Amino acid sequence: MITNNASAVADGPDRDHHDTDGKLAVSKTAPPAGVLRLVQDIEDHNLLDARGYKRPLATLPGYHKGRTPKSKGRTYPPDPPSVDELSRLLLACGDRPTGLRLHALIVVLWRTGLRISEALALNESDLHADDGSIVVRSGKGGKRRVSMMDPWGWSRVQPWLKYRQSLEPGPVFCVITGPTSGTRVWSHTDVRRDLKRKAKEAGIRKRIAPHQLRHAHAVELWREGIDLLAVQRQLGHARLDVTQLYLRSISPTEVLAPIFARSGPVVSI
């Protein structure tokens, strides 16, 4: 009896053993509940990203539920960067592949006024350098439109587009490294992080965000005398009053300067 009990203990509950008929009986011991719960969480909440790496907790569904956003109630003035600041930002990008990609994205946002979501959704077939057009297939509200970019802008994005040819077909602004290089779109979060870092390297001591480049585009078009309706269509605004809000950064004296420059009346006094 003692020998049999000792043998049973040595075998343990997880070992295969023979039943009374001499047949091999497979252990039916279930995995611990914690393991099953973890596997279920991975399946339900997609804890791994497209590359198979563990996702940060802040990206999981429901993580921010009930939390007050840090930016709630805060408003940022329309303070678009100047041409000098944008030039310094472009110089800070460098000539490495990641720098070429950021350089091209800055130019597209600045010279077309696209929203960041619209720029990141561009495919290679949406760019038409021959007539300067860029097709936005799904803008705000799912609307399709065509925006234009000047020859200088096209010349500045060519280095990235040339390098892009060495990657798999996909979005224009894609990830460069890893198994999904060329096929997965560059994330909004990474764009904002890289912009912030390059602005600091360029010595720009103010907030630089993708949407500010859209404001800069609108202001420059107005200063160049482009009709406001053309600006509205370029930006994809449904209402003209929204386009006018983009011009709030222009000082009143600049807006009214043509009145000061009026010629005097030709009258006899």
TrEMBL record:
Biased composition (Basic and acidic residues): 12-22
GO molecular-function terms, A-Z: DNA binding
Residue ranges of every copy of the Tyr recombinase domain listed in the record: 76-261
One BP term from GO: DNA integration
Keyword Nucleus assigned: no
PROSITE patterns: TYR_RECOMBINASE (PS51898)
Region (Disordered), start-end ranges: 1-27, 58-81
UniProt entry keywords in alphabetical sequence: DNA recombination
Alphabetical list of InterPro entries matching this protein: DNA_brk_join_enz, Integrase-like_cat_sf, Integrase_catalytic, Tyrosine_recombinase_XerCD
Record keyword S-adenosyl-L-methionine present: no
Biased composition (Basic residues): 64-73
Coiled-coil residues: none
Identification of the protein by name: Unannotated protein
Organism: freshwater metagenome
